[in-house]
């Protein structure tokens, strides 16, 4: 009870005191540097990917791509032999040659103690070292023989935020620091605090922290509803995490009624199932084991991810890798039917989490007025069909121009536009 009370106080503090002493200093710095303050950033940091949207002076909202045109980018940070820091696609591209100094999934470490059971379950599979320092998790990176760095999760997250801020500056032609940051539905008070500290460390003026299901609902325009209370189910299947939340919208206020999270179920798991199939195929055909070659496995996983994405629009795709191993080429057709068979148990597992979220909210499926699918893996046809069938044919909310893997950042930018007066709205977001 005491812990819940402390977390409740933290939530109230975030809502009522958006400008702490630290963010006040950022605001002063922005004023002195001549920044106009007309634009606001909406930043969505996922467990595997990130996305950023901007509110322009005319009130329009746009997703900001990176220098390669990618609108959703890896939330990865890496260090080269000479200590150079890489973020995003550049960090992921060199992973095969540099796994021990490539960091991903840092969001899972934020605001947790080293002894946290879920944290311990996750770090067992990471290629980089997570160590205990005064009871807190630190990432240990050996850049060189005499350069060993202990990095806090807040610092790693701040590096991703800073890169996104730089991307927005390049896109807009000027620096913007004011931002709305998003958070998973299940985050604790300590994780809220750590996320805000990461934003401040990156140089952001954090206007507000908003739960991801709420920003998704805002992106799809559900905050405009002013009639009777509505129950909304948000199904978020991302790269490595499934989050299901049940919201109530009443008189302009969103409240989270229940949420369920599985930090070990997402698109990466589907990729590994496909990769496992081809590992066995190569073993049968060529008598070679791909799993013993880190570079080959990384290439195979990347190709399987590409194939998975293609199967959302196609019924079959060619999986092709030249010299996956010395003297071994891979060129095989993967059908959507086979993909679904390989992942059937994982798809059913997502439905179990959905059902538990409804039970926790003490609602029947017929009580749900709106269904929102978000996260890149919610594009998978089987996932969409299972959710539709569960709700007896109810179609998910759809708005032209809003993509499932961009909705959270878009909604955060909309919330930023409300806070800065670009749009007149009284929507309130309750974090609890």
From TrEMBL:
Ranges annotated as spanning the membrane = none
State the GO CC annotations: cytoplasm; endoplasmic reticulum chaperone complex; endoplasmic reticulum lumen; membrane; nucleus
Q: Care to name a GO molecular-function term for this sequence?
A: protein folding chaperone
Q: What is its main location?
A: endoplasmic reticulum
Q: Which UniProt keywords apply?
A: ATP-binding, Nucleotide-binding, Signal
* Endpoints of the signal sequence: 1-23
An example GO biological process term is: endoplasmic reticulum unfolded protein response
* Domain of life (superkingdom): Eukaryota
Q: Where in the cell is it found?
A: Endoplasmic reticulum lumen
- Give the Gene3D superfamilies listed for this entry: 3.30.420.40, Actin, Chain A, domain 4
Indicate the family of this protein: Belongs to the heat shock protein 70 family.
PANTHER family named in the record: HEAT SHOCK PROTEIN 70KDA
- The entry's protein name is Uncharacterized protein
- What species is this protein from? Triticum aestivum (Wheat)
